[in-house]
Design goal:
With 497 residues, this protein is of the alpha+beta class. It is built from 16 helices and 15 strands. Helix content is 38%, strand content 17%.
Length: 497
């Protein structure tokens, strides 16, 4: 019964701290309004520990059955259940005050509060994220995290068609803009009634702090410019990174590169990503140290990592900012034809940096991954991009998260792994199935390495081999390879600084 579901949702709000007992009647009436109900009968008794996903499903089904929800596709359901959850969420000013009260005690307490809040409000859909497939692949570079992302729902064809016919809107300008806070959404833009942003000051400007709704790792946060301005890697970038680290020293923070191919998916809005997680790259040791003239007081070295990463460390953030700016300036203009590194071709610049900042053992630390987006006829999507033979697993850009050692792989792989497992167990020809024939060369390459494939080990084998492909993806993205020749070329650049 709909009244039971409403009461269960209010009880959920009280149990999580989203709703104060004094606000129960108010919140109940808000939910009645959304469900288009004029009256309410108080249920005598309910189970107040019903999972949120189940409560929302019941309310969505009720809304569709009564005609309040006209379309039952996932996009429409997501818009509607966010509207329901918005009834339970305090105004931004109240959330900000609570955050600041916690921050006065410690930054850790503040982020603990806000991360839990962002999950309790269903802005972070815990029940979807737990469906993501995750495993770890061992490599010569350390333990690499692999994720098949299932938490971001794919739009159904009906919703795509409806969105195409709908009036186009430029509000908010993108999904990172501050105007998303409280926005009802539409078929081509997610609802954000349950979304709250913490204002912070970065490099003297107004920025926002929030969590990613698709947390790929623990406390995956997004820090974004209050203005809709394009991403740019320059000296100010490094200043901003360390401003954030001073505010939240228990978090790392990094930026995607600012060029297509080697950048992230949203280059139109200046933003960073951070969180409370230690990636494989952060654990990777420095394999060779360097002394850079004029910066003899700063520790510097090449990291043992498939991408080309320079690590610099100092107790003074300003020294790292100065050195990082120097390295960036040198790299922007650097050409080494023997290593196929070109600063520009036909007026198009190619060199940039993916930076990641953190505190470690009382010192500021900055990793600078050297990136280059040059293309050729052989590699039209990028020379330092996953090569064509790996596209069956990973074709998308290698952004910040992948650079650090976490593969975010497309959801299609879940079904494709099942079909591949079936072929491997039954002896079917992989090439005979159009859905998975793109994997045939890869399968034929690794099969000889296994004496026996059984129901018990087939998925483990596929996971292991997918992990190995991702390591090769990272190696493709490295401008200097982890070979003697590659390290010599890397050394030439370091000597030029």
């Amino acid at each position: 019964m709909v009244y039971d579901s409403i009461k269960k949702l209010v009880a959920y709000g009280v149990n999580t701290g989203l709703v104060e007992p004094e606000d129960e009647i108010y919140v109940t009436n808000r939910l009645l309004e959304v469900m288009e109900l004029d009256e309410y009968e108080e249920p005598e008794e309910i189970e107040d520990d019903t999972p949120l996903e189940e409560i929302l499903k019941d309310l969505l089904d009720e809304a569709y059955a009564s005609g309040v929800l006209e379309d039952n596709g996932i996009a429409s359901r997501d818009l509607f259940d966010t509207k329901l959850m918005g009834c339970l969420v305090a105004r931004p000013s109240e959330v900000i005050r609570a955050f600041m009260d916690h921050y006065a005690k410690s930054p850790v307490e503040a982020t603990d509060f806000f991360y839990k809040f962002s999950q309790d409000t269903d802005y972070i859909r815990r029940y979807r994220i737990c469906r993501d497939i995750r495993w770890v692949t061992k490599s010569v570079y350390g333990d690499i995290d692999i994720t098949i992302n299932l938490s971001k729902p794919e739009k159904d064809p009906k919703a795509i068609a409806a969105a195409r016919l709908a009036k186009q809107s430029s509000y908010p300008k993108c999904q990172l803009c501050k105007e998303n806070e409280g926005y009802a959404g539409r078929l081509d833009h997610p609802a954000r009634e349950n979304h709250r942003i913490i204002p912070i000051t970065i490099n003297g400007g107004e920025w926002g702090f929030q969590y990613s709704p698709y947390v790929y790792y623990n406390e995956h946060c997004i820090v974004f410019n209050g203005e809709h301005v394009p991403m740019k890697i320059n000296r100010e970038t490094f200043v901003k990174l360390f401003d954030f680290i001073r505010l939240f020293p228990h978090y790392f923070i990094g930026s995607n590169a600012d060029l297509p191919i080697v950048g992230g998916s949203i280059l139109s809005h200046d933003h960073f990503q951070g969180g409370n997680y230690t990636f494989a790259m952060a654990k990777a040791p420095v394999e060779k140290t360097f002394t850079i003239p004029g910066y003899e007081d700063v520790e510097a070295g090449i990291v043992h990592w498939p991408l080309s990463v320079i690590r610099i460390r100092s107790k003074e953030a300003e020294r790292l900012i100065d050195l990082a700016d120097h390295i960036l300036t040198c790299w922007r203009g650097y050409t080494d034809e023997a290593a196929f590194i070109f600063a520009e071709t036909d007026g198009e610049r190619h060199n940039t940096i993916t930076p990641i900042a953190r505190m470690r053992d009382g010192k500021f630390e900055l990793d600078l991954a050297l990136r280059n987006n040059i293309t050729t006829e052989e590699h039209p999507l990028g020379v330092y991009h996953p090569h064509a033979e790996l596209h069956h697993i990973k074709k998308e850009n290698i952004g910040l998260i992948e650079v650090m050692g976490l593969a975010v792989l497309p959801s299609r792989l879940k079904d494709e792994m099942q079909q591949l497992a079936d072929c491997l167990l039954t002896g079917k020809d992989v090439r005979s199935n159009p859905a998975i024939e793109k994997h045939a060369d890869w399968v034929e390459g690794f099969l000889p390495h296994y004496d026996s494939i059984t129901e018990e080990n087939v998925m483990d084998i596929l996971k292991e081999e997918i992990g190995r492909v991702f390591v090769r993806v990272l190696e493709d993205a490295g401008v200097y390879k982890c070979t003697e020749e590659g390290r010599q070329a890397f050394g030439r650049f370091m000597a030029s600084l």
